[in-house]
Specification:
single chain, about 190 residues, alpha+beta, Beta Polymerase, domain 2, five-stranded mixed β-sheet, 5 helices, about 15% strand, transferase, GrpB/CoaE, NT_sf, GrpB-like predicted nucleotidyltransferase (UPF0157 family), transferase activity
Length: about 190
Amino acid sequence: MARKIEVVDYCPEWKEKFRQEAAKIQEILGENCITVYHIGSTSVKGLRAKPIIDLMPVVKELEAVDLHNEEFEALGYECKGEYGILGRRFFMKGGDLRTHHVHIFAEESRKEIERHLAVRDYLRTHKKDAEAYAALKTELAEKFTYDNEGYCDGKDSFVKDLERKALEWRKIMYVSEKNKTYCQKTDG
C-alpha cells in the first residue's frame, strides 16, 4: 500500500524534534557541518503540515557527506543521493511512516540554501499566504490521500509562485537592511 498523505495541525514539539535530530546530524558530520536549519512547513509556527521534520545542514564539502552514509543508516535514514536536485544529499527517515527529511547542501550552493530559507521566512511573516498554503495542502491531502505524486503536482504551481514571491521579498528585505545599516553608519 502507498504511503498515506496526512496534513495535521501545527505541533509545538516539532521544534524540539528538530533540535534533537539536528544535534545527531551535527555529531555525524563533525567539523564539516557549518549549521543546520529547520525548513519546510514544520518550521513555521501555526502552519498545518505533513508531520515530517525537514532539516537542511550546510557543509563545507558535500562529497565528505558520502563518507557518513552508514552513520545516517544507523540512525534509521535511507540515503538517496542527490534525489533530483544537483548538489544535494538527501536522506529520509521512517519509511512509509516518514518522520524526517534531510537536505544537505555545500555552502557554495547559496541559491538552493537561500531558496529554502526565503520560503520559510516568508511564510513566517505572511500569514495570509501561509493560511492559503495550509488550506491547499489540507485539500490535496484529502483528495490524494494515497497519491504522493498527485499531492505534489497539485501544489506545484502554488509553491513555484510562493517561492518567486519569497525570493523577491527576501531581496527587498536584504536591500532594506543594507540601506538601514548604511544610513546608521553615515548618520553617526
